[in-house]
Task: structure prediction
Amino acid sequence: MSSFNPDDTLKLSNQLCFPLYASGKEITRKYKPFLDKLGITYTQYIVLMVLWEKDHVSVKEIGERLYLDSGTLTPLLNKLLSKGYISKKSLPSDNRELIISLTKKGLELKKEAYAIPPQISREVKLTKEEAQELYRLLYKVLEGFKDE
Amino acid sequence: MSSFNPDDTLKLSNQLCFPLYASGKEITRKYKPFLDKLGITYTQYIVLMVLWEKDHVSVKEIGERLYLDSGTLTPLLNKLLSKGYISKKSLPSDNRELIISLTKKGLELKKEAYAIPPQISREVKLTKEEAQELYRLLYKVLEGFKDE
DNA sequence: ACTAAATAAATTGTATACAATCTAATTTTT
DNA sequence: AAAAATTAGATTGTATACAATTTATTTAGT
Result:
């Protein structure tokens, strides 16, 4: 019978946080070789994914979708702007809001991105059922964080 | 019957990568208020966790354990050094290796860290079974990445 | 023993992240 | 309507991350 040892709670192997942190970091690293070919980073890629799904959105909405704040998004959007993938214009009805839109070049990049997700999936060694369960649990964690 | 639409693969909601990335980011953010009280960051905390579990390890071993490279660890270890939590000395049998050890202050910090994991667990709205399954799946992802 | 290859950290350069603060614009209160 | 509160982005400062390169040391091959 093993009794409770407070030391155990501080072992990496007993923490959910560490594998979450590490797998998040490692999976984005897996994207790098593919995204390098497109000349964008992972964070730039997910910003474009938001826009590919729904064009003309505010910085605030992008941030809410991706859990990123303006300190990250402002310089990142400037990079996407200078690369010619997006354009900015302020919302006439509320000049505080900055609306981000895809340029033709930004929209065309989507075609090149199609091939990436299946290649990443292949590197994730999970069955379809496991991947679905992981997906469900991760969103449950994320949703749970929103409350407090 | 819905036919396959290549657009769907590029939706955030269809990607495992995004919730991995986001939950990793968000859970470390949850640690911040607790770690602020100790005056350390999340990455510094997991480096200390490695040392609390096994003292006197090389930079390389810390990096392997945490999936971090020297570009991240070197400046971070210098911060822990200047805060007085660790000491450095090179391995006599191989001067390339830098051995990191806890100071008394670094060891004592462990007592203050005990209380943190249970408080984070409380914010993760998963049942014990779900948390275990998530843990298993995340490590399966991480292990799968090691191969290639 | 001597050179080539390999290894461990440090360094350099680029790109996030995010808290905290600031600024401008809009809304709410009074 | 004027003042106060709120909101959206931008800015500032600190701390990761990591690829690529460099340096010092060690090991392997001849």
